[in-house]
Amino acid sequence: MHSSHQYAGNSLVLGIETSCDETAAAVVADGRDVRANVIASQVATHALYGGVVPEIASREHLRQIAPVVREALLRADTTLDDICAVAVTEGPGLAGALFVGIAYAKALAFAANKPLIAVNHLEGHIHSALMAAEETTAAAATLALVVSGGHTHLYLAEDGDAGWRYKNVGRTVDDAAGEAFDKAAKMLGLGYPGGPWISSLAEHGNPRAVPFSFTQVKTKGRGRGGSDGANDFLFSFSGIKTAVARYLELHDMVASSEKRRRAIADNPNMTPEQMLSLCNAQALGLAASFQHAVVEDLVRKTLRAVERFHTRRLLVTGGVAANLQLRKRFSQEAAARGLSLSFPAAGLSTDNAAMIAAAAWPKFLTGNFAAPELTAQPSLKL
Ligand code: KG4
Ligand code: ZN
Fold first, then answer.
1. CA 244, CA 183: separation in Å to the nearest integer?
2. Model pLDDT for residues 326-382, shown as the tens digit of each residue
3. What does pTM read for this prediction?
4. Which of 104, 14, 120, 117 is nearest to 61 (CA)?
5. Which residues surround ligand 2, an ion (CB under 5 A)?
6. What is the pLDDT of residue 50?
7. Helix, strand and coil in the chain, % to nearest 5
8. Of all atoms in ligand 1, which is nearest to the CA of residue 178?
């Protein structure tokens, strides 16, 4: 249906991402060069409820999708006629939120007679780190850690003739790492999402103040077997969440957390600096120790997987990959091992549409287009 002449010299893909609480559109050339990256965040709206409210997310996407796409094309100085494909997140994510992006992308592709490409959100995250990787390392055996609010997964990634292939070799058995950051922050009375709050306050705390033992973030005797190694790298973050709750109770920190929660409810635009004045050394120590424990667990298990699978290249991506301490620790360990390491560029760790357009590019080249009956896949696996 879509002849290859549409590709003549034109490598611009329009990406659309609406899987959770960001309405995003981007234009990317050659799967690498970000020409425009527009994100309308709903964070402020959902922050009032302390988490993403699915119905509100869908409604906000509906409101934002058209202006966000228009803005992306405008900033890229291009038009729908001049792009070669429309790419959209198929899943995983919130059904209603995904529907908005898919319906809009389908309509655009149909109206402009461009191919439509479906992208797995997790594959998108992997490509946000690949975009930043040196092209010279392209053939290296690759391990990817995806750490976000909804996911903590390890994948072996391979660039084959038919496009990228992924093998899941690790996952969380309960909460995702970002979810743990969000829950710990909520218990401490900090803002939503919690990752950025914990991370900025942790700078001022002693990471060894609370000795969260690694058994609390370790798996509970599961995942022994699996000759393919698929079950060997299991994460668990619900234990440390419980440990934070217990610590707060045992050390009479519940009231001061509640005070912070009220302060931020009264002033949703509070800065981390202002929040700092509402935190004593004990609260800062808890934030720093929590971050330390989670980061060290992610680093340790991921490096074990690097050794196990003899990968020469590591990608660390997803919202939690914005964490500076995580980046620092992975960088130190990778340097010590001569391992090639890439993180997403600034602003591309958390959800965005540039990663969707980037992941779509190899699919465009291999003619891997979406069927007309493409629909939302809330539990899509990679
Ligand atoms: O990738 P993302 O935007 O959405 C999902 O696909 O889930 O990730 C959002 C998650 C949230 O849990 C947020 O708290 C976390 O990423 N996050 C961070 C940081 N920035 C965002 N976690 C730790 N440190 C950060 N600096
Ligand atoms: Zn994401």
1. 9
2. 999 999 999 999 999 999 999 999 999 999 999 999 999 999 999 999 999 999 999
3. 0.92
4. 104
5. 148, 351
6. 75
7. 45, 20, 35
8. 12
| Strand order, beta sheet including 116-120 | 33-41, 22-29, 12-17, 85-91, 116-120
**Of 41, 179, 181, 190, best ligand 1 pocket probe by most atoms within 8 Å of the beta carbon:** 181
Average pLDDT taken over every residue of the chain:
91
- Residue 1 is predicted with a pLDDT of 37
Ligand 1 binding pocket (C-beta < 6 A) is 20, 148-150, 178-179, 181-182, 193-196, 199, 318-320, 322-323, 350-351
Cα dist from 127 to 76, 123, 155, 195, 342, whole Å: 20, 6, 12, 22, 11
Per-residue pLDDT reduced to its tens digit, 9-36:
689 999 999 999 899 999 999 999 999 9
Under DSSP, the state recorded for 371 is P
Tell me the range of 131-140, 158-167, 246-255 where mean pLDDT is highest: 246-255
For 312, the token pair is 């020469």
> CA-CA distances (angstroms) from residue 232 to 66, 91, 110, 152, 302?
44, 25, 44, 14, 11
- Give dist(CA 369, CA 240) in Å, integer: 42
The alpha carbon of 80 and the centre of ligand 1 are apart by a number of angstroms equal to: 31
Q: How far is CA 86 from CA 249, 262, 347, in A?
A: 51, 44, 22
Q: Is the pLDDT of residue 142 over 90?
A: yes
